[in-house]
Amino acid sequence: MIRFLFGRTAGRLLSLAVIAAVALGAFWFFAIREDNDAQKEAAAVTEEVRKAANATPTAAVNTPAAGTARPATAAVTQAVAAASTIGSASYSIVQGQSSAWYLAPEKLASLPTSSVAKGTTNDVKGEFHFTADGLDAAKPTTFTVGLASLKSNESRRDQRAQGALETSRFPTATFTATKLTGMPKEFNATDALMQLTGILDLHGVKREVTWELKVKKDGDILSGLGTTKFKYSDFGINKPDIAGFVTVEPEVTIQVQLFAKQG
Description:
The chain is an alpha+beta fold. It folds into 2 domains: 1-32; 35-262, Lipid/polyisoprenoid-binding, YceI-like (Lipocalin), CATH 2.40.128.110. It has helices at 2-32, 47-53, 72-82, 155-165, and strands at 83-84, 89-93, 99-108, 114-121, 124-130, 142-146, 172-181, 187-188, 192-202, 205-218, 221-231, 246-248, 251-262. Strands 2-5-6-7-9-10-11-13 form an 8-stranded antiparallel β-barrel. Strands 1-8 form a two-stranded antiparallel sheet. Strand 3 (99-108) and strand 4 form a beta hairpin. The chain is elongated. The chain starts with a helix and ends with a strand.
């Protein structure tokens, strides 16, 4: 009798465990799971960005009527609108319009399907200083991201991320550039591809990283998309797993979309 009752109890517990696992899996798949792709190109400069930057848009070009000679000044204006050299100039990040985010592949232990979680913050500030050949060595090119405001579509994921990053101790991440390669002679409406190398100060650890940088220029505003990857362990960060439930891949992708105004 005791064995019979024990067997029935064990069976019920096993059934409940299976049901709970299925329920958790369904909840993760439909409520928590995300599918996010990396951004591919620098974003366009919108009127909202211009307003935030109090910037001047690129001047419109008036096309002369058919059969009318094009004034030399119009040709020059059109050339300037199409392509613009940087030269020696400084740019300040447009706060509130620039953003940074992580793309973290994660997988539910009981399911074969993985997903990519995304957490974003608009707390980004910094400055870029250029010469005609690259970075201005006399002025630091740097940007800082506030980590405590990173948000995804799930508050529990955000709590795990904040815990892994220890944002109470290390509330920001700062990148200081040391080298820029691939600097074009001029920028226009299409992305120029460059590599920006420097020191990332994250979670109390400083390591060299390189960003793939795509930059376009519109008026006096630069739009830049930066992408880099690293392992959590590179910066002493514990992966934000949930034991027995969600496993996070060891490598994370970081992207920044920066708008920076000249002056």
